[in-house]
Write a structure and sequence with these properties.
This protein is mainly alpha-helical. It has one domain. 65% of the residues lie in helices and 4% in strands. The protein is built from two helices and two strands. It has a two-stranded antiparallel sheet with strand order 1-2. The radius of gyration is 22 Å and the shape is rod-shaped.
């Protein structure tokens, strides 16, 4: 009985720690997105005032894209194509194996 209580206590403690870490990561991500949004605004102002090229605006927007997508859909990073484990040169998506070459 004592082992069961100890096990449940440890599981609960781990869940609380995980929750705290996720909250800290969310706050950090929000701060990063805010900084990148500011970067896009500054790049746009510089372009409008003739101080830089539009390429700078596009680069700032590109840097903002993935963190914004992750904020909207936290599982988005799991759906990014990854190389297959069998090194066939084909790509696997969503954790499935790539089709074998014939």
């Amino acid at each position: 009985m004592n082992r069961v209580c100890s096990s449940h206590s440890k599981t609960f403690s781990n869940a609380l720690i995980t929750r705290e870490k996720l909250a800290e990561a969310r706050i950090s991500d929000e701060q990063a997105v805010a900084a990148l949004e500011s970067s896009v605004q500054l790049a746009t102002e510089r372009y409008i005032n003739g101080k830089s090229s539009y390429l700078e605006v596009l680069q700032a927007q590109q840097e903002l894209y993935y963190p914004t997508q992750a904020r909207v859909d936290p599982n988005a990073s799991r759906r990014i194509d990854r190389p297959s484990s069998n090194f066939t040169g084909r790509w696997a998506t969503d954790g499935r194996r790539a089709p074998k070459m014939k």
